[in-house]
Amino acid sequence: MTTALVLRAREDAARTARKLQALGYTVVLSPVLEIAATDAPIPPGDYDAVLASSAKGLECAPAAADAFRRLSFHAVGAKTAAAAQARGWRPEIVAGNAEAILPLLLGRYTSPVHFLYLAGRDRQPMLEAGLRAGGHAVTAVDVYEARAAETLSEAARAAIEAGRVDVALHYSRRSVEIFLRLATAAGLGGRLSEMAHAALSADVAAALHATGLMPVVAEKPDEAGLLEAAKKLRPPC
């Protein structure tokens, strides 16, 4: 059986594992991140629209965020849009990543507006930086944080050490950096080149390239694209 290593936060990893198992993979989980709400308050403001780049931004937003459901809502990713709908918003602009949604937002908002961004503490700055460069105001509220794991799971350590991992799936640059650090601390750094690596985006892949690994990047920056990349690298058997 082909074995896939999943390194996402626990709840997300469990969902991904079910998809991989349905495809015929054996799955090893080692969540390198733990998602936690920060309980950060939303500052009072004259907001014009709401943004989120992760479903966690909706799931961890305080109850006070519901006061802004009358505003236009824009989402990075279909999962984020679904979480917004479950919370009572009606997503209007939805795109797969920050690079895709930024020109759409700039095209719609040709005069300066004020965005409320329900965000994670550790994030890429492109979206809010691009909006500010376009003349808009962005209030980013860190409604959740991703805490780093201290060790790899026992199952992952054993599988990597035994050379039983065929492909590792990488969803974010930060999770890659944590994984590499934990693998090195466990004395497994030399075994990582023995497995294939699939990365969600070029940015995610960059952290792997920096250590000499050669990941394949998903054609589309979503989970379906990443699973397809994994199948091409190491088909289930």
Please provide a written account of the structure.
- With 237 residues, the chain is of the alpha/beta class.
- It has two domains: 3-34 and 149-233, Rossmann fold (3-Layer(aba) Sandwich), CATH 3.40.50; 44-145, Rossmann fold.
- Helices cover 37% and strands 24% of the residues.
- It is built from nine helices and eleven strands.
- It has a six-stranded mixed β-sheet with strand order 3-8-7-4-5-6, with helices on both faces.
- Strand 10, helix 8 (202-209) and strand 11 (216-217) form a beta-alpha-beta unit.
- Helix 4 packs parallel to helix 5 (126-133) and helix 7 runs parallel beside helix 8 (202-209).
- The longest helix has 14 residues, at 10-23.
- The model has no long low-confidence stretch (mean pLDDT 95).
Number of domains: 2
**Share in β-strands:** 15-25%
- Quick one: overall form? elongated
The neighbouring-strand order within the major sheet is: 3-8-7-4-5-6
The rounded distance between the terminal residues' Cα atoms is: 5 Å
